[in-house]
Design a protein that fits this description.
heterodimer, A: alpha/beta, TIM Barrel, eight-stranded parallel beta barrel, two-stranded antiparallel ribbon, globular, B: alpha/beta, Rossmann fold, 12 helices
């Protein structure tokens, strides 16, 4: 089992009446709500927290990309990852991921990931994503060809890493006379590729066929993950091999405190802020970004998404987060990681407005009292 | 109560019009296209808006068919018309309809459309002016008017009330609530999803054609610009710029009308265009 520590770098300072007054924390929420002086302290503390995960013995740390929002303050996760290469020595650094259709040329991703791999001494895990619906509004990227651009860009990047340049590239959306990025990655043939997914059959099959790793994005009901990893194993079998557990990652927030009661008391208000404010607007889907069939499925699956959960019982029963004493968290984590058959757990202790000292305390309890006994 | 009666009356007229438009599937340069046609007389091509109103033969189609041989094609990607994968921008739409005129053997036609349809008509007329006898354009985007930027339809579409406010002079009226229903059924949702996908391909990256303004001088035929005076989606200022750039074009405003005159002021819409095309 591998345990990765995930950080969203959320903005914790939205007004108390934010939910009543705004329809979204994304795209058009005015950046006058952002304060760069507070932002400086946040980046420092958030990066400290990620670096601390190495000290505590986590296997990896994760960062990701979002634009124009209060949910996650890493429009360039590569910048944060660059800082982390210099703050850490051994831990894997997973950038999950870069939204390929947002980069033109996508060779920029080949270059920056190669830089990070070389800078970190071969510790990079590269995430390749289509990018969430809101990003297509924020970057004005035409959404109906998102999937085509993603596939083409991914093939281009992998070829750029594995075929000596210069070579010429010509596909429907991209043409380059000279593909020849310097540097090239340290890991051969190229760094591991992780693809986050929210359960579409299309993505599951693609990842299985390519033998990449599928990372189940958190905030869904446990039944969704049961279905997804079952489908993934089937898809691998259909592609002629048995899925390796480390090809499957389960994203789930975990919070540990001294007792169950204390854990909930400390975690719940921060998590509520996250659900009510920061998730608001995340599901905005631009037209043509999915097939009509997938769009209908997404609508039907709304009730399995965290944003729709009203009570603490809903959150606990759906395993939208694992919260409790070390003993409680040990039991639940052991049960579900085994049941899902995953080899990677991506967890965040930091969420919403959770104060840094509590995030650190939870990380320490998780690393010292839970993980050694569930590995 | 009055709204319900008005809706029933419109529904009855839709039923009465039904026999008028014969749907046919034709092949246009490899794209399977649904074409509704009816009436007799001079060829009259109606290009629909992103609402997809030509998925059905409606009373306004029938009214045009009293005077003309009406051709009402369904754009690629809408409803059961195929070929979406061969359309990447507004120019592809223009070429698609050049191919349609050729496929139907139509030398010269009265051409027009509402909103997206009007924009496509303009793109055709600047390229092949000899194929257009009379051109009418209603409430169409295609240009950029710095002082009155277009609203974000893709954002507005999330909220039915806001959408009606943008599209109709009277957003609470019978026709507004009939055209933009509060609780659309699955088929309507699917049609809307397809329609918005096609529209996204045309306007997501840039909600106009930067080359169109410089080309409008090439339009050679009589041109009518018809605008709802309260079009809040594509304000009359757009009609004014079209008028300035198309030689000899006339601009007529329809009073107390929003973005969709074929629904909100059907009689005046049909009459004005019919008179223009027959003159």
């Amino acid at each position: 089992m591998k345990y990765f520590f995930f950080h969203l770098m959320s903005w914790p300072y939205l007004d108390a009446d934010f939910d009543a007054k705004n329809d979204s924390a994304w795209i058009w929420l005015s950046n006058s709500n952002y304060d760069p002086v507070k932002g400086h302290d946040l980046y420092r503390e958030y990066i400290d927290t990620l670096a601390y995960a190495e000290e505590l013995g986590f296997d990896g740390i994760c960062v990701n990309e979002h634009h124009q929002n209060a949910y996650g303050l890493m429009p360039s996760p590569n910048v944060i990852a660059g800082a982390l290469t210099q703050r850490t020595k051994k831990i894997k650094i997973a950038v999950i991921g870069n939204a390929l259709p947002l980069y033109n040329p996508p060779l920029r991703v080949a270059e920056e990931f190669a830089m990070l791999d070389v800078m970190s001494g071969g510790r990079l895990i590269t995430g390749m994503v289509i990018g969430g619906g809101p990003e297509y509004f924020s970057y004005q990227i035409e959404p109906t060809t998102a999937r085509e651009k993603f596939r083409e860009a991914l093939d281009l990047i992998i070829k750029a890493w594995t075929t000596p340049g210069p070579f010429e590239w010509n596909s429907k959306h991209y043409y380059f006379r000279y593909v020849n990025p310097w540097p090239t990655p340290l890991q051969k043939p190229h760094p591991p590729i992780w693809i986050p997914g929210v359960g579409s059959a299309e993505t599951i099959e693609f990842v299985a066929q390519r033998r990449y790793a599928y990372m189940g994005v958190p905030y869904f009901h446990i039944d969704v993950f049961r279905r997804v990893f079952g489908q993934f194993r089937e898809a691998c079998a259909k592609a002629g091999y048995e899925a390796h557990p480390e090809q499957m990652g389960w994203g789930v927030p975990i919070y540990v405190a001294e007792t169950d009661k204390q854990a909930r008391a400390e975690f719940e208000p921060a998590f509520r802020y996250f659900i009510k404010n920061l998730l608001k607007g995340i599901g905005l889907t631009p037209p043509g970004y999915t097939s009509p069939k997938s769009a209908a499925a997404i609508l039907q699956n709304q009730k399995f998404f965290l944003y729709q959960q009203e009570t603490w019982a809903d959150i606990e029963n759906g395993v939208f987060a694992i919260v409790g004493s070390p003993e409680t968290v040990r039991q639940k984590l052991a049960r579900y990681q085994k049941e899902l058959g995953v080899g990677v757990v991506l967890t965040g202790c930091q969420t919403g407005t959770l104060p840094h000292h509590l995030a650190r305390k939870s990380m320490e309890l998780l690393a010292r009292e839970v993980l050694p006994r569930v590995r | 109560m009055l709204n319900i009666l008005k809706k029933l009356k419109y529904g009855a007229r839709v039923l009465l019009s039904k026999g008028g438009g014969q749907p046919e599937t034709i092949d246009i340069a490899g794209k399977s296209t649904i074409l509704l046609h009816g009436g007799a007389g001079e060829p009259f091509v109606y290009l629909h808006s992103a609402l997809g109103e030509s998925l059905m033969w409606l009373p306004f189609h029938q009214a045009f068919a009293e005077k003309f041989k009406v051709y009402s094609p369904i754009h690629p990607g809408f409803g059961r018309s195929g070929g979406f994968d061969q359309i990447t921008d507004i120019e592809d739409m223009a070429f698609h309809y050049l191919d349609m005129l050729d496929a139907l053997g139509l030398e010269q036609v009265c051409l027009g459309g509402v909103s997206l349809g009007g924009w496509i008509a303009a793109e055709i007329a600047v390229r092949w002016p000899e194929r257009v006898k009379k051109l009418w354009i209603a409430d169409a985007p295609g240009l950029w008017v710095e002082s009155q930027p277009l609203g974000d339809l893709f954002r507005l579409a999330q909220n039915r009330d806001k959408l009606r406010e943008m599209l109709f002079d009277d957003p609470k009226g019978a026709i507004a609530t009939l055209v933009v229903k509060d609780q659309p059924d699955e088929a309507m949702m699917l049609n809307a999803f397809q329609a918005m996908s096609v529209l996204a391909r045309m306007i997501w990256t840039r909600p106009y054609d930067p080359k169109l303004a410089g080309r409008l001088r090439r339009i050679a035929c009589p041109t009518l610009l018809l605008w709802g005076d309260h079009d809040r989606l594509v304000p009359p200022a757009y009609g004014e710029v079209y008028q300035k750039l198309i030689p000899g074009a006339e601009l007529k405003l329809i009073k107390d009308c929003g973005h969709l005159p074929m629904f909100e002021k059907e009689a005046e819409f049909v009459e004005t265009i019919t008179n223009f095309c027959l003159a």
